[in-house]
Amino acid sequence: MFNPENIFEKAKSSAFYLWLMNKGLDRMIPFNAPHGFRIKEIGNNQVRTMMPYKKRNLNHLKGLHACALATLTEISAGILLISRLSPKKYRIILKKLEIEYLYQGKTNAYGSFEFEEEWLQTEVVKRLETEESILVPCTVKIFDELGNQLTNGITYWQIKDWKKVKTKVA
Fold it and tell me: Considering the domain boundaries, does residue 104 fall inside one?
């Protein structure tokens, strides 16, 4: 049986499973597939993502589109959280997204998000033991291939145990 948690673990050390995970994400989130977002590296506490510089991701000035950069920000933090917090146990929803645009992207863009293990245990796991839901801010930085920082983003994730969710999934 397919278990996404196994794919995340295997993708940390296998190019094949990283490729497989990217293909699975394209199928699970078809809206993102045409943009070519890719997870380049994933570890226990860090992820590196990529968005290609291609027509579908450009704005009217031939720079990377603001919404595409925002989506890369969301993917970067979200995929790492999901890889560490079981989606079977926790509902993870993007509640708020703040982006500061710093430089116009004219090459492929790379997002990065990382955290300390202590942060995950104290600010997320421990809090979920006593609180019904928590709001977790995650800072994601996006750079171009030349090292220019394109954005500084903060995603705010609402995390809740599925047992405490009142609305039903259709």
Answer: yes
